[in-house]
Amino acid sequence: MTTDKSYEAVVMGVSAGGLHALETVLPQLPADFSLPVMIVQHRTRTSDDFLLRFLDELCLLRIVEAEDKVGVQKGYIYLAPPGYHLQVEMDRSLSLSVDPPVNWSRPSVDVLFETAADVYRDKLVGVVLTGANRDGSAGLARIKQLGGLGVIQDPETAEAPQMPQGAIDVAGGDRILSLVRIGQFLATLKNEGRRRF
Amino acid sequence: MKFNDIDTENIEIELLLEAIYQKYDYDFRGYSRASIKRRLKRRLSLSGHATLTDMQREVLYDPDFFHVLLQDLSINVTEMFRDPSFYKAVREVVLPLLAEREIIKIWHAGCSSGEEVYSIAILLQELGLYGKSLIYATDFDETILSKAKEGIYPVDLLQAYTRNYRDSGGVGSFADYYSARYELVLMDKALKENIVFSNHNLVTDGVFGEMDLVFCRNVLIYFKRELQDRVFRLFKESLCTGGFLCLGTKETVRISQYTGTFADVVKKEKIYRKN
User: Mean pLDDT throughout A161-180?
Assistant: First the structure.
């Protein structure tokens, strides 16, 4: 189940059922995990920081709300703030926007995935977890088109199967796994430095 | 699409922004690219052109097409009492500190279609301060600015706005501030009396003098750090000592070189005061 290829970042999209999914996957990442993780979890605009504090208790990595114009660093899990799109800029910093919702969602998984794909290209791992809509499918297709890796939660194990099923239909998955397996798999990923050529 | 094509497209974006600047004097070169790219590619797919280079020709030779693109690039997502807890802090913390001033000068930079300008006007009116206030509401986009001036909004948004108003500590009846006609509402004329709408571009234009309060919300997230610094300098020079700067909830002066110029007033709401 492991991979020999070196990757530089993980992006993750999750919607309905996200709390349980994230508390299963994220604590499995080791303290020396060498890839930054960026997450879009759909939630209402008025959400407080409960999710952040809850996950921070469980994770070995530091989990923070993504801030505008801050450089992406390993050792961190960045969570998109409610009401803002999260994007990756070419200089590997994060940016936020209040552009109109995409797939009725802001933050939108597609926006994160598509902007990250242009930056990390074949060194990006896209993860689509449980959710009751189709956000993330187009983004994952873009990641795969550029040679990145697609990891999708097995819809049969998902609290809401539509989002992972949509990703399978539109993008296809390189790994289709249960939440526990996804955590185990991600934990094996290695970043062996920037592209050499 | 190969990596080579992404690199080519990034070059095309730089050239297009340069072309727009040289031809039309609108300077988007300091904007963060991820959002710009999505907007340009949306217009590209609607335009029928194959590449941004093809589209650039039309931008240069057809001012009407440029104005379509300008609408795409202007940021016009706003609402009344956006982030109610912010407006609550303005009502309860900021405005009482300005109540003794002879005149309260307010600059709303990047006011878009005006919803937040009318929100401030309502706050001032409820605190009995409107009569001695002067609000400069500016945007670089004439089309959106004339919308702001009209103060006409779709009625279906009113329910959310009314809720925001109440959550922000509104004490009156929100319905007193507009008149509804069919699908539209028109903001009360009295709210407009002390508002001056004018064209101003944060990227290329200069200072507004001696302001007591500057609002600039959810604009700076679209700028690169260098441009953010230019704008913070503009705000610093526009504010009087002890004047307030109000940013969007996810914006901060703390990563800028002007961080020392501003003290926190309500940290969570990104309300600062010039030292």
Answer: 97
Q: List all residues of chain B from 158 to 197 with a beta carbon under 8 Å from chain A.
A: none
Please check whether residue A99 touches B, CB under 8 A.
yes
Who among B1, B35, B252 is closest to A97 (CB)? B35
Mean pLDDT of chain B: 95
Question: Would an 8 Å CB–CB cutoff place B34 in contact with chain A?
Answer: yes
Active site residue A15: yes
Show which of residues 36-55 on chain B sit within 8 Å of chain A, judged by CB atoms: 37-39
ipTM, two decimals, is 0.91
Residues carrying CATH 3.40.50.150, chain B: 84-274
Interatomic CA distance for residues B141 and B200, integer angstroms: 9
Contacts of B208 (CB under 8 A, 6+ apart): B107, B136, B138, B200, B238
Q: Do A146 and B3 touch (CB under 8 A)?
A: yes
| B84-274: CATH number | 3.40.50.150
State which residue of chain B sits closest to A88, comparing Cα positions. B34
Radius of gyration of chain B (CA): 20
Q: Which CATH superfamily groups domain A9-187?
A: Methylesterase CheB, C-terminal domain (3.40.50.180)
pLDDT per residue as tens digits for the range A7-49: 999 999 999 999 999 999 999 999 999 999 999 999 887 777 8
CA distances, B153 to each of A14, B80, B144 (Å): 34, 10, 12
Query: Where are chain A's structural domains?
Result: 9-187
Please answer yes or no on whether A98 and B252 come within 8 Å at the CB atom. Answer: no
Picking from B66, B69, B86, B90, the residue whose alpha carbon sits closest to that of residue B78 is B86
Q: Using an 8 Å CB-CB cutoff, list chain A residues near B33.
A: 89-90
On the 0-12 / 13-18 / 19+ scale of CB atoms within 10 A, A74 is: middle
pLDDT at position B76 over 90: no
Q: Hey, is A178 helix, strand or coil?
A: coil
Among A96, A121, A123, which would you mutate to test the B interface (most chain B Cβ atoms within 10 Å of its Cβ)?
A96
Residue A196 in this model has a pLDDT that exceeds 60 = no
User: For this structure, is A49 an active site residue?
Assistant: no
Chain A residue with the nearest C-alpha to that of B248: A98
A85 labelled catalytic: no
